[in-house]
Amino acid sequence: MTVTSPQPDSAQAQPGGPAPESAPRTARTSTVATVLAIALPLAVACSIIGMTVTGAFSSDQQLVSAGDLVQYGLPVARAVHDGMAALTVGLLIVAAFALPAQKKDHGAMSSVQHRAVRWAATTGAIWFLAAVVGIVFTGANTLGSSITSPLFARNFLLFAFQVEIGQSLVVSAAAILIATVLAAFATRVTTLAVATVFGLFALLPLALSGHAAGSLEHANAVNSLAIHLLGVCVWAGGLVAVLLLRTRTKGATGRVVARYSTLAGWSFAAVAFSGVVNASLRLTGPLDLFTTTYGWLITVKASILILLGIAGIVQRRKLVPALLRSPLDRRSFTRFALAEVVFMAVAIGVSVAVSRSQPPIPQTPETGEDTRSGLIGYPYPPAQTLHTFLTQWHIDWVWLALAVVGAGWYLFAVRKLRKRGDKWPVGRTISWVLGCAVFIWTTSAGPSVYGMIHFSSHMIQHMLLMMFVPLPLVLGGPVLLALRTLPVRNDGSRGAREWLMLFVHSRYMQFMAKPAVAGVIFAGSLVVFYFTPAFQFAMQSHEWHVVMVVHFVLSGYLFFWVFVGIDPGPKRPQYPILIIALLATLAFHAFFGVAVMTSESVYAIDWFHALGQTNDAALLDDQHTGGGIAWGASELPMVFVALLVVRNWVKSDTRDAKRLDRQAERDGDAELKAYNERLAAMREQD
Fold first, then answer.
1. Backbone phi, then psi, for 330, in 5-degree steps?
2. Stretch 625-648: mean pLDDT, rounded?
3. Cα→Cα distances 600→536, 543, 603, 621, 622, Å
4. Strands (DSSP E) along 143-213, which ranges?
5. Rama region for 378: left / alpha / beta (φ>0; ψ in -120 to 50; rest)
């Protein structure tokens, strides 16, 4: 006798009779297709309506018109661009982090992952085409000429490769193309992950192409907008991806939705936080939300965000548990998710209108009493003294948020360990929280405020980011803590824990974990950064300044992890090699400090002259002071690291000795007897 298990999504067909559930299933499928098909046109319509309400199409907001094609085509191209960006990123990230993979061939994609990646390649191609059209239209709009005019033909390449907005759009389009090609040919989950990284990276340069690029609070505006774009694409695109793949995940639908729900929660927090920061930089006060057309758009976005947040809570508490109990009963989730997609489409369209409309606070470089404020991106601080260096603050909200989230996650993970009865050293917790606190002070207080103005202050910031921030973070052992607290996947898919394990034991980390490599990156980057135009680029350009901060912290973290890290990873070399590499790096670092102290030309002289500091002798003296700081600041942490290496060496020898003693007790010192017998045999042979 054959027993057939019931299918929750359909009734069993009777012989010779109609399939009762075929029509409803077709209806549900067509409903999903219809809603998703109208989402993009809805976003386009909302963007045009929003721009009409704010008067973005009026001639008084445009110095020179580029023609109706550009005027009306640019928001349409941007809406298509943003919609395809969200869908491509959503498909990739859901495939990489939520969908089940093959268990037999570890690392190979499953059929549903293949489907998601191929769809991502298709939407990525449309995304790339929309990006190219956007570059052309933005160039015409910037130049104030139609795309058929000779002026546009002569100056388009100049716009694309020498103007910051054009460069950012070109870099984004290149990343989109790479992500699309990788997705089109991906057969392994690792390739899928690389495509996801490029897709996410393609969103970052777009933050430079909006109002954020010209505001006084340049850093906070650009950083928060970048976080906003990432959060929206992961959130909205991930939801559409789950909807499209819902019938192909079968029994894993509940798990997939639950994993997406976690991503959506983090994305919601990122969108809400970055949205508040962005609105505060563009509105003069809360009243603008109700008294200006720009504020009306912000109010609409905020209202939709609140509604979606409530929907997310309902989904997390009711729909996800129901799907986990009955994975094939997807009707409630589908209806709920489709409603969310409609609201998200409206929000995306409103966002496009916001990006093309003039806010109450003019988003142009500062040209008031002190033009230097426009150069550094925040109000020019008072003259530097010890008191002002310790008390002046200009909060970088994204760096602050990252540090707070890092500290909060660590404390939550430690609490989770202790609740299940496991121990975690208090010293590691103190070390990690201290590193996060020092990072906040370094990026938002005196070292950051005056680091843009004086070389010596910049060098203090450099040393803090490269040594005094990474060292306590390394001693906190975050990777080990994450591996002990993150959930383990059992369906072949890769979550945060699986990707972390794969990364720390990868061939890339085996190469990076060599003391010579870590030492060259740590010390050699000093020469590359200061003895080339890179230093001036980091002062003049926000994106290069962000790269500077990230590189300093990561290079320092890698260096200290190789020598004193407690996190798992590739096997470290013997302790004598570590000591030699450490001393060589310390000597090179001292040589760099001496080279700066004896330098005869001012680094980034054009930047300091633009700030009104035209006394080259004073600039050179300050630079020599910075060289002394670079030399002296390395002594304390390096000596501390050397002591830790020696301590670990002694503890390792002690452990080996105890292990050998226990082994000798078990086997009657067989190893020593065998050694003596070999010596005796050699004497007899002689």
1. -105, 5
2. 85
3. 17, 29, 10, 10, 12
4. none
5. beta
Q: What is the DSSP letter of 615?
A: -
* 191 alpha carbon, distance to own chain's centre: 18
List residues bridging with 108 in a β-sheet. 188
What is d(CA 269, CA 267) in angstroms, rounded to the nearest whole number? 5
Give the Cα separation of 127 and 237 in Å (integer): 13
Half-sphere exposure at residue 30, Cβ-oriented, CA atoms within 13 angstroms: 6
pLDDT in tens, 142-186: 888 888 888 888 888 888 888 888 889 999 999 999 999 999 999
Nearest to 130 by CA among 93, 168, 176: 176
Cα 148 to Cα 132, 154, 159, 163: the distances in Å are 16, 11, 16, 20
Q: At what angle do helices 397-419 and 426-444 cross, to 10 degrees?
A: 170
Residue 417 CA to residue 423 CA, distance in Å, equals: 7
Q: Where does residue 67 fall: left (phi above 0), alpha (psi -120 to 50 degrees), or beta otherwise?
A: left
Alpha carbon distance 615, 619 (integer Å):
6
290-318, pLDDT tens digit by residue?
888 888 888 888 898 898 888 888 887 88
Helix, strand and coil content of the chain, in percent to the nearest 5, comes to 75, 0, 25
Rg (Cα) of the chain, in Å, rounded? 29
Which of 295, 296, 230, 294 minimizes the C-alpha distance to 267?
230
